[in-house]
Design a protein that fits this description.
Elements lengths: L5 E6 L19 E2 L2 E2 H11 L4 E6 L3 H8 L8 E6 L5 H8 L8 E5 L2 E2 L4 H11 L3 E6 L10 E3 L5 E4 L11 E8 L15 H11 L3 E6 L4 E2 L3 H11 L2
Helix pairs in contact: 3-5
Length: 234
């Protein structure tokens, strides 16, 4: 069941903190060792047996579609949902509702979290909550710690914009969710998954935290890009 689950990738970001690098390409297409960053996420998914991919595009999304096409060249099946105007992470997910077939894995197209996805999926089904997100307590992620949990391992607070000194984990940009989540997102207007939707799940005790081993890699700044290049060169 796990390997048949659809993977939805949020890839609509512009990446303004990367300056001129994203003048003519979307953030997930920034090259790393001659390949777009998103290529490495897709390779990780294929290596673990996940081949049904839906990419949610926004800023210069055609560049992503032109490069990866239908995914056949990578032995994947790739479909797309494109937002014409910025809708936020939640709004982009809602827009794609009719292309999401059931419970799904959701991941950011600008982060790389090399974890065993089937273990996260198994955890999600054991918890039987609306969602489960992968978090890390690796010391290298410490400046970005933004998740606090309660004694039951449920997310108690998600500090989206500013890391919290009282937080115990960093959100790695990967989660598993029930299809019913899409019904809670308002249609036709901008909505943040992290700030709006997660807030509802947290208040309803419906978001579990899966503690994964090791760090994750975020390409949001020039310094983080350097770290990713080093990691992917090994």
């Amino acid at each position: 069941m796990s390997k048949n689950m659809q993977v939805v990738i949020l890839a609509g970001g512009r990446g303004t903190r990367l300056g001129r690098l994203t003048d003519d390409i979307p953030k997930p297409m920034v090259p790393i060792h001659g390949k777009p960053f998103l290529y490495y996420d897709l390779q990780m998914l294929k290596a673990q047996g996940y081949r049904d991919i839906l990419i949610l595009t926004g800023y210069l999304g055609k560049r992503i579609e032109e490069y990866f096409k239908d995914g056949v060249g990578l032995d994947l099946h790739i479909a797309y949902s494109h937002e014409e105007t910025p809708l936020g992470t939640g709004g982009a997910l809602k827009l794609a509702e009719n292309k999401i077939s059931g419970n799904f894995i959701l991941m950011n197209g600008d982060t790389l979290f090399p974890l065993e996805l089937h273990e996260l999926v198994d955890f999600f089904y054991r918890q039987d909550r609306m969602g489960a997100i992968a978090v890390s307590k690796d010391p290298s992620c410490r400046p970005a710690f933004n998740i606090t949990t309660n004694e039951d391992g449920l997310v108690k607070a998600y500090h989206k914009k500013l890391p919290s000194s009282g937080a115990s984990y960093a959100s790695g940009g990967v989660g598993v969710f029930k299809h019913d989540l899409l019904q809670t997102i308002p249609a036709g207007r901008p909505c943040s998954l992290e700030e709006d939707v997660y807030d509802i799940l947290i208040r309803n005790h419906d978001l579990a935290a899966y503690v994964a081993q090791g760090p994750f890699y975020d390409m949001g700044t020039q310094e983080r890009l350097k770290i990713i290049r080093e990691f992917l060169a090994t």
